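Sample intake sheet
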Amino acid sequence: MRSTKNPGRIAGFLYLLLVIAAPFRLIYIPSTLFVRGDATATVHKIAVHQTLFRLGIVTDLFSGTILILLVLALYRLFKGVDQKHAVLMVILGGVMPASIDFFNVLNDAAVLILVRGADYLSVFEKSQRDALAMLFLSLHHQEIVAAEILWGLWLFPLAILVYRSRFLPRFLGVWLIINGFAYLAMSFTGLLLPQYEDVVSKITFPAQLGEIAIMLWLLIKGAKPQSPDTAPLSSSAR
């Protein structure tokens, strides 16, 4: 198959799956089910649309799994360029963010338990259960804000690999570096100045398209690592 002969297309396809799946829990569910500042209304919506909320949990697990497969595909593509940077990319972009995805599911699971109102929770008033559910949703969001640091950091070794490779255009590497700084700006704003989080997200949106650009390039044009005798020397060999 052509995708087997061109590993770049495999990475591009996995990237596409991630780009399609991740916004479902990150954007769609909060905009559909969450009412800012109103725990009772939020819990009511989740109770009415429990299946939709559960799909968000499944999406988090799916995204974490695809993320690991994606960085392994990218490692296969770039290990001949610089193995040290390729390993760093796998750790920062796959292992650590995927772990956050998996652990973050616990917050949503706690919300579901509170919404369903198990018998042992009868010691809490309804308003207290609603407040606790909102707390776990807030924790989910704060973990996403923290994860944005990793979303930014992993793009730096990836950008270096793209820039040094001779089978991808260098402008993609430059754009990925800008994209990485955009994620860092969003994360630190969310942690230090959360009232400006939405504003910074809108301002940095064009920079965030760097990942879309490399995803489309890999998916459409693909990429093939060069043979060892023509590939650029890795940093370890310099």
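Comment: Residues 230-238 have pLDDT under 50 and may be disordered. The two ends are 36 Å apart (CA to CA).
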